[in-house]
Amino acid sequence: MSFKVFLGKYSTFSNNHPFLDIFLSSFLTFLIFQASHFNAFISNCWVIIQNYLYLWRTKLEEFIKMKKITIAIDGFSSCGKSTMAKDLAKEVGYIYIDSGAMYRAVTLYSIENGIFNGNTIDTEKLKQDIKNIRISFKLNPETGRPDTHLNGVNVESKIRSMEVSSKVSPISALDFVREAMVAQQQVMGKEKGIVMDGRDIGTTVFPDAELKIFVTASPEIRAQRRYDELKAKGQKASFDEILENVKQRDYMDQHREVSPLRKAEDALLLDNTNLTIEQQKKWLFEQFNKITG
Ligand SMILES: Nc1ncnc2c1ncn2[C@@H]1O[C@H](COP(=O)(O)OP(=O)(O)O)[C@@H](O)[C@H]1O
Ligand SMILES: Nc1ccn([C@@H]2O[C@H](COP(=O)(O)OP(=O)(O)O)[C@@H](O)[C@H]2O)c(=O)n1
């Protein structure tokens, strides 16, 4: 072991008095080698300083990571999950991921690429294509919210259509589709500091999430909220059709074999039937503060 490496290693033994450590080690080196080894003295000092900088950076990173948490928001269709998830993420500077948008994007791809024949799905073709389906989120500066991109194309508006809503649940029940989406979602949440909403986030994607919420509201209220939203966007909408779709999707999502929609045992239940957007936002923020504050 060279002397330089030896000193570098030795210096990390005491982390309580780094400056004293640097000074003493350097002074010792200086005494031993005196002026004729001035270069060795300088370079040993530099190795020791680098070691400390590395140690402090690692500790700082650990501290930042420790403070960030993972937030999983699951629940029934159209009950306000993404509204509250987006608001919280914006407020606390976390990443927001709408996992439902990912299943919607796969569904749109299937519609546009002949994978649907009526209601029958060509699962073999989708299985082959799934590795070529790239889903990403990019901030829309106009709305201040992330838009969904499918293979580089902005599909945010298209994936919210009634056609996609009516076909998304059978697509999201396919095991290989779920496997691919869950793997991507777990990579997105690796560094924590994420709010993700969906159906299986607290049970499958992030079972160790520090904060889990399960949201519900009556089907009629949920259908009315979705109806109002579509109308406000100037889209055609029928309340009865939306209510039927909401009920059907709830049923399919709860009864599929892989990762069915259910409340994680350690999730907090929020029935927001009689809450305003502001009230539910406040409630969620309080839960966040209880854990991180
Ligand atoms: N507490 C609430 N009261 C009234 N409308 C709400 C409430 N929460 C959400 N909304 C509205 O309901 C619609 C569906 O909400 P969204 O967040 O997209 O639901 P989800 O993500 O659960 O499908 C949106 O138009 C949203 O603005
Ligand atoms: N984590 C998730 C998220 C959505 N999904 C599926 O994707 C569909 C659309 O999800 P979404 O969150 O956009 O649905 P809405 O509640 O917004 O209508 C759901 O009905 C589920 O079938 C899922 O299976 N798992």
UniProtKB/TrEMBL annotation:
Keywords: ATP-binding, Cytoplasm, Kinase, Nucleotide-binding, Transferase. SUPFAM superfamilies: P-loop containing nucleoside triphosphate hydrolases (SSF52540). GO terms for cellular component: cytosol. Pfam families: Cytidylate_kin. CDD domains: CMPK. GO terms for molecular function: ATP binding; CMP kinase activity; dCMP kinase activity. Gene3D superfamilies: P-loop containing nucleotide triphosphate hydrolases. ATP binds at residues 75-83. InterPro entries: Cytidylate_kin, Cytidylate_kinase_dom, P-loop_NTPase. It catalyses: CMP + ATP = CDP + ADP; dCMP + ATP = dCDP + ADP. Its EC number is 2.7.4.25. It is found in: Cytoplasm. Residues 71-280 form the Cytidylate kinase domain. GO terms for biological process: nucleobase-containing small molecule interconversion; pyrimidine nucleotide metabolic process. Belongs to the cytidylate kinase family. Type 1 subfamily. This is Cytidylate kinase. It comes from Bacteroides faecichinchillae.
